[in-house]
Amino acid sequence: xxxxxxxxxxxxxxxxxxxISCTGTSSDVGNFNLVSWYQQxxxxxxxxxxxxxxxxxxxxxxxxxxxxxxxTASLTISGLQAEDEADYYCCSxxxxxxxxxTGTKVTAL
Amino acid sequence: xxxxxxxxxxxxxxxxxxxxxxxxxxxxxxxxxxxxxxxxPGKGLEWVAVIRYDxxxxxxADSVKGRFAISRDDSKNTxxxxxxxxxxxxxxVYYCARDLGYQLILMWSFDIWGxxxxxxxxx
Lengths: 109, 123
Prior knowledge:
By secondary structure, chain A is mainly β. Helix content of chain A is 0%, strand content 44%. By secondary structure, chain B is mostly beta strands.
């Protein structure tokens, strides 16, 4: 199972909105609504930010939102803040296993 | 509080075996599916294995199938990963994580993570 494709880096000024894409295939992202997103700061364990494409766990800021169209899922961060600087990973169920994206480094310029 | 704590990592030679443990606390361990995931140094996340809440089903990534075995002991609130025939490419931080789903449901989303334990495979 090949990794899902994410841009290596995305950046924007504080206060702006950015979107991270996560492209898979009709066998994973396109076939299941079991897409999740994780935020990882350096040296820390990942944190769940979005599950089932667009649902936020309790305690996650509503500045984070998720969506999906066809084989591509997206994570949008509205009102970018310095604390949002981190690596972000998408993950999808494939029918038999989980597959992660290649990861995106988000920078607030 | 809800917590997962991994242990058992270390430096091992290629071809040898190692067992990782993950101690759970603060929630009803026996009601949740549990996963192992890993992250090679400077690399991205990789899903490794999952076990259902009752141990009835286990699934593995192709990269570890036949070499790794996931298990659980609900009496000890502990998850295990038995790793054999270790290779250099298995070098990574290994995380255990709780599935967001409850009992029969696996949501393939990981809401509670441990801090990780480092496994280095090197001669």
